[in-house]
């Protein structure tokens, strides 16, 4: 299995962990994800609800969908 964890990935992880994203205040986290993901996908866009969709063409190969929440519990 190829190792994709590199310096760029480590910096991204640190930035993600440093950004507070409680529900309703996810904008900074969304912008960071978009900035990081755009290097690896063919198309990236946001919908009216703030969801970000990053699409990589698969040339007929198997498809994988990864979903996640960008917000965190905040009290």
Model description:
With 75 residues, the chain is α+β, with helices and mostly antiparallel strands. The protein has two helices and two strands, in the order ααββ. It has helices spanning 7-18, 27-37; strands at 43-46, 52-55. A two-stranded antiparallel ribbon has the order 1-2. β1 and β2 form a beta hairpin. The longest helix is centred in the first third of the chain and has 12 residues, at 7-18. It starts with 6 loop residues before the first helix and ends in a 20-residue tail after the last strand. The relative contact order is 0.19.
Brief synopsis:
This protein is α+β, with helices and mostly antiparallel strands.
Structural class: alpha+beta
Distance between the termini: 40 Å
Largest sheet: 2 strands, antiparallel
Estimate percent helicity: 25-40%
Give the H and E element order: HHEE
Work out the oligomeric state of the chains in this entry: single chain
What are the segments in which pLDDT stays under 50 over at least 5 consecutive residues?
none
The strand line-up of the biggest sheet is 1-2
| Overall 3D form | globular
β-strand percent reads 5-15%
Radius of gyration: 14 Å
Our count of helices gives: 2
How many E strands? 2
Mean pLDDT: 86
Can you lay out the helices and strands and say which pair or pack?
Elements: H1 7-18, H2 27-37, E1 43-46, E2 52-55
Antiparallel strand pairs: 1-2
Task: Give me some keywords for this one.
31% helix, 2 helices, 75 residues, 11% strand, globular, alpha+beta, two-stranded antiparallel ribbon
